[in-house]
Amino acid sequence: MSLSVKFMRPLNFKGQLTLVFGAAVLLLVCLGAFSYRRIVQEDADQDWVEHTHLVLEGLDAVQLDVTTQRTGEHGYGAGETHLRDDLAKVRLLTSDNPKQQRAMDQIEAIIAGTTTNQKHTMQGSTPRNPMVGDASVGDTSDGIDTLLQGMRQEEQGLLAHRLESARIGSRRMKALLGVGGALAIVLLFVAGVVVESEMRKRSRTEAELRTAEERYHRLFDSNPIPAWVYDLQSLAILDINAEAIAQYGYSREEFLELKITQIRPPEDISAVLESTMKAPDARQSSGPWRHIKKSGEIIDVEIKSYPLVFGDKQARLVAALDITKRNRAQEELRKSEERFRLLVSNVKDYAILMLDPDGHVASWNDGAERIKGYKAAEIVGQHFSRFYLEEDLRGGKPAWELDVATREGRFEDEGWRVRKDGSRFWANVVITALRDEAGQLRGFGKVTRDITERKRAEEELRLRNAQLDAANKELETFSYSVSHDLRAPLRSIDGFSQALLEDCADKLDVGEKSNLDRIRAAARRMGLLIDDLLNLARVARSEMRRERVDISDLARVVVADLKKTQPERRVEFRIEGGMEATGDPQLLRLVYENLIGNAWKFTSKREFAQVEIGRSHENGTRAYFVRDNGAGFDQAYAGKLFGAFQRLHGMTEFPGTGVGLATVQRIIHRHGGKIWAEGAVDQGASFYFTL
Amino acid sequence: MEDKVILLVEDNPDDEALTLRALKKNNISNEVVVAHDGSEALDYLFGEGMYAGRDTQIVPQVILLDLKLPKVDGFDVLRKMRADERTKRLPVVILTSSNEEQDRISGYDLGANSYVRKPVEFGSFLEAVKQLGLYWLLLNQTAPPARRT
Q1: pLDDT per residue as tens digits for the range B109-149
Q2: Residue A38 CB partners (closer than 8 Å, separation 6+)
Q3: Which of A243, A372, A654, B47 could form a Cys-Cys staple with B56, CB 3.0–4.6 A?
């Protein structure tokens, strides 16, 4: 771009164009003016040339006249008038030139002199014109000729001068026209450039506008919110975007045939009309309105609308956001919040509260009020450290608890806490760090349980256990001493009785010997009793082991031992194989020793003693049994069987302390099982137990 | 067999009498030294106290040891015996009325060679003594006496 256009930049297009055209116009005007002047000048010059030619002609005429006069053919007289006319003409023609006038004067003077002289000559008078002297007419003619020549030269000079000036003038004119023309062309060129740049700008703007329009239209079309444009007058829908088509179910063609009233439920139409009338030029945000989809489904929408000129119609652009889902979601949220609040607030056994990240109470429930004593209004916002004891506060316990919860996600503790009234209670506290989906710490959840009662119960339990242990220890010592100290005297009784029997055998009679025998028997029985009692006691307090015990094997061992004590007895044993149980091996052994021992004892009077040891399904439960075909017992007294020291047979019939079954029962009960017996007098007995 | 000594450690005079009687009845006529408590037993074994000056080269063939003894009880005697070079290999039969598991365990832990329960009935007691005598005095081989350095 040329410089001129560059510095024109600060002006707008109109200015620029005005400037350029103004300059061009000015230029043309100037050129025109100059041309006009030149033409006028040329005319003038032409006149002058003509004039000069006239003058020259005139001078020639004068010369002729003079010459004619001089030659005097006619004498000055006849041609005088001619001469005078011509002189007058020349005088007239040169009236503007003082020099020529002076020359004229001279000529006329000479002529007058000459003429006078001539006249005089003719008349014979002396010339009055000294100038002329005595010169002849021929002489004076030279003078006139010279003058005339001079005048001619003058005029020619003038002519040349004028021609020169005309030439200069015309050259100047040409130059001016050339320059002016060039300048005009330049200006036109500049104007052209300006116009072109303007046009380019305009077309660019147009293109931009078009692309913007396109873009906006695309945005409109691809707006995720349904939108349309409707005619304010007719309410007809003028344009529709893709989302509206998708959501409302109408096709594009169908939509463009609709009026906006057709997408409302009929009962809403009057309200719609009212609102459109109200403020046709304003941007409006309104809602919720109801719209009907093609399917008849009604949705809630929020409307934003703007005035718009569409094509040439007054219209409005409407964006309708479906808030049905949002409403529904909000409703759901509200319900779930309510549910949650219901849950938390109604739980009375646990204090469920929320703390903010700094430990101030953010929420409170009924349980918290009940346990800690504060009402929600007075505690929310307070720091949770006020629930702690003095010494805990000094140790920085509350802050430390939050710290642990933050680091490890949760903190659990049991400790003393303080209620509003200052009383203490033993609490189980769980503090959980609450993090949102981004992992940010949002606060803490604190669940507190008042376990003062439980603690008390635990303390009591501990105490009782301690007491129990002490009692057991005592019992053990007792048993120990019993086992030692009680037996010793028995030994003495028996031993020395025996000694007597032996040493004084010849001095004693049957009765006396029998007395000693009774003494010994009694001592022996007492020994057995002590053993059985010790067993019973041991069974009660010993630690029970739980192992898998091979029952069949156990039974076999017991039977073998029994056989060894009385090898002469013939008893048929049937032991079921593969029996297993879970229990204390020693105690179970005692059980079988007792039961099989009893069977052995009570079949001693049978010739063909049979003892069966096995498992059975009695009334649907699996039970172990020991059955014999011995003396049996009266079922009526079955209840007494398991009582300590209870015997259903006389001492002389079958020996026994009556403690054995009590012991067995104790063992079975410790295994969590049941024991019962069936029998009939003289028809054997069966003992069943479960574990 | 006669020169083999039996050391009976028993505090109960009745039991002592009965044991001696049982031994006699079984024709076991070895010398029986009776210690009435633990310290007496130790004195005898180590030639101290009331047995000072005894030739401790003569060691009992078997020691019948009761557990419940005054002053020094059976386990302590056993412990001290087993700790001393001179007596650690001597056979010890614990003869006690206790049948407590713990006593049996402790007895064997401390190095007793046998554990026999004193029966109440004298007949059985007699039999037990007989068997003990037969076994420990006749069948069992003791370790050679500790060499005096």
Answers
A1: 999 999 998 887 888 888 888 899 889 988 898 888 776 65
A2: A169, A170, A173
A3: B47
Among A581, A684, A677, A580, residue whose Cα is nearest residue A631: A684
Last residue of a domain, one of A541, A572, A592: A541
B138 within domain boundaries: no
Same domain for A188 and A249: no
Do A629 and A672 form a contact (C-beta atoms < 8 A)?
Answer: no
Shared-domain flag, residues A20 and A167: yes
Give tens-digit pLDDT for B12-45.
Answer: 888 888 889 889 888 888 899 999 988 999 999 9
For residues A423 and A518, membership in a common domain is answered with no
User: Is B121 in contact with A489 (Cβ distance < 8 A)?
Assistant: no
Residue A12 and residue A116 share a domain = yes
Say yes or no: ipTM exceeds 0.90: no
Beta bridge partners of B31: B5
Q: Do A483 and B18 touch (CB under 8 A)?
A: no
By Cβ distance, the residue of A483, A498, A527 closest to B100 is A483
Domain that holds residue A508: 451-541
In a domain, B40, yes or no: yes
- Asked, for residue A532, whether it belongs to a domain, the answer is yes
B140 to chain A, closest Cα gap in Å: 25
B128 inside 8 A of chain A by CB: no
Q: State the total domains in chain A.
A: 5
Smallest CA–CA distance from B21 into chain A, residue: A499
As a whole number of angstroms, the distance between CA A322 and CA A261 comes to 17
Contact indicator for A444, A359 with CB cutoff of 8 Å: yes
A541 and chain B: CB distance < 8 Å anywhere? Answer: no
Residues A527 and A552 in one domain: no
Give the closest of A479, A484, A494 to B120, CB-based: A494
d(C-alpha A496, C-alpha A513), whole Å: 13
Q: Are residues A242 and A134 part of one domain?
A: no
Give the CATH number for residue A384: 3.30.450.20
Same domain, A65 and A156: yes
Q: Which helix (H) or strand (E) covers residue A100, if one does?
A: helix A98-123
Q: At what angle do helices A487-503 and A510-541 cross, to 10 degrees?
A: 160
For the record, the structure tokens of A154 come out as 């003058």
Give per-residue pLDDT as tens, A557-569. 999 998 888 888 8
Location of structure tokens 């109604």:
A346
The enclosing domain of B14 has a CATH number of 3.40.50.2300
Confidence tier at A10 by pLDDT (50, 70, 90) = low
- In-domain check, residue A216: no
Q: If you measure CA to CA, which chain A residue comes closest to B99?
A: A483
Give yes or no for B71 touching A (CB within 8 A).
no
Residue A322 Cα distances to A228, A235, A307, angstroms: 14, 21, 21
List of chain B residues whose C-beta atoms are within 8 Å of the C-beta of residue A488 = 12, 14-15, 97
pLDDT in tens, A29-87: 888 888 888 888 888 878 877 887 887 888 788 778 777 766 665 555 556 677 778 87
Q: How far apart are CA A370 and CA A379, in angstroms?
A: 13
Q: What is the residue range of B116's domain?
A: 5-131
> By CA distance, what is B103's nearest residue in A?
A480
Same domain for A619 and A639, yes or no, is: yes
Q: Does residue B149 sit within a domain?
A: no
Residue B32 phi, psi dihedral angles, 5° rounding: -115, 120
Compute CA A420 distance to the chain's CA centroid, rounded to the nearest angstrom.
42
Question: Which candidate, A647, A527, A535, A518, places its Cα nearest to that of A589?
Answer: A535
Nearest residue, CB atoms, A495 vs list B18, B96, B99: B18
**B140 within domain boundaries:** no
pLDDT recorded at residue A465: 92
Domains: count for chain B: 1
Q: Is B97 on the interface with A (CB under 8 A)?
A: yes
